[in-house]
Request: fold
Amino acid sequence: MPDHLLEVIARFTRAVRESPAVDSRSGVSARFAIAAAETVAAAALRRTALLGEVDAVARVGDTEAVTATLRGKVEFEADGEGREIEILDHLLRRAVADTWRGLLGGVDLAGFVKLGEQGPGVSAGDAVAAADLLSQVGRVQGLAQVLTHLGFEEVPRPAQVAAAVEFVLEGLHLTRRLAKDVLDDGSVVYGGRED
Reply:
């Protein structure tokens, strides 16, 4: 589990606790964050096993399993009932964007934007192995700086690099610098500018 995803989970947990849509009397337990981390790790293991990979490293796309899994661990106010998943998804996206800004806000990501804008875009997500993601990216300006800011070791494993690349692309989408299309097979394509 990369540190940047643990930070996303911590921010997400805090946002859920502070949300006016959540019943403050019942609160959000410490187990919520632990269960979220376990869910993300399990999603990474599942993806790795299904794709026949050896190295399981969680990616930002693996966090999507959290909202459906943890919905039952949160009690909502009456006005939030029926919108639980929508509320949790929004808070998770906000946690990802805030973490991304905090860790990569000053990094020159023009190479990633250019990569997403050229050609058919970059496929990532559940159906895309780390090697396939990296083969689409190749050498991209700013990757070394991203890896340093995310705290990866000097020679990161391919799965760690794939986790960093997917985090960059998702952050560029959430900050409206790249579009994102979700496909039926569980993959996503980042490309073009958001309008």
